[in-house]
Design goal:
The chain has two helices and 21 strands. The chain is mainly beta. It folds into two domains: 170 residues, Pnp Oxidase, Chain A (Roll); 87 residues, Immunoglobulin-like, CATH 2.60.40. The strands form five sheets. Strands 1, 2, 3, 4, 7, 10, 11, 12 and 13 form a nine-stranded antiparallel sheet that branches. The protein has a five-stranded mixed sheet with strand order 15-21-20-17-18, with no helix packed on it. The radius of gyration is 28 Å and the shape is elongated.
Amino acid sequence: MAKKVEFGLSNVYIALINEEADGSITYQTPHRLPGAVNLTLEPAGDSTSFYADNMIYYTVSGNQGYTGSAEFALLDEWFLRNVMHEEKDSNGLLIENADATIAPFAMLYQVENDVKAARRVLYNVTCQRAGQTHATKTESVEVNTTTLNITVAPLPDTRDIKASTTEDTPAEVYNNWFNAVKLREGAYAPDNTLSGLSLGSLTLEPTFAAETLEYAATTSNATNTIAATAKNPNATVIITNNGKTVTNGTAVTWEDGENILKVTVTDGGTSKEYTITVTKSA
């Protein structure tokens, strides 16, 4: 099911960046930063158009990541010490020093939607010192928040900027999203094959195999129940009999003579069609 709307912001984690001697990037264990209020990202980079034949002939876009802001109820001590590099002295005072440098980090977070929450990561984030505003209490209490101005840049080695889970993300990756920063691993390989196909007690000829797309069967029954199981549980399975939609796992009603049963499996924008020709005797 495709998502229709997004809302909410939660589960913000910060993972400090380590730049290795060869220029590659690794990450420390993510730390949960509670109190996420708002995250705003605006694209950075200009588009340049080349004109020819009295029209825009070619356009090139320079993707430099994002600029924006991240608002929190409060920045915890871990963030102030490890990202802002404030120092804690023997008296327990947290001290900001003019020579301190701000550490780059990855930001992991979760956005709700009407299907399943998306989990995302910004791979290379830097921030500026946050401004502070404090006001006296009146009849009503207004909560102070802290807003960081952030820049999200491409990684220097891979040029990747951000990543998001999808309906095709394995459960192991999704469930462990906040335990470590997940980097790119190869290219997605869609699987639009079936792992199982049956028509009740009918015998398919030839015997079902995932890569075999055409089958035949005979019956004297008025109906038989079809069961089609995709290898990828996130794939879409659509079944029709003589052009009419049939719900997977329900009975198919046969017409006398030849019936053309089609099972279409779609994953990652690619489809595979299985055809069963069912002949019903009078």
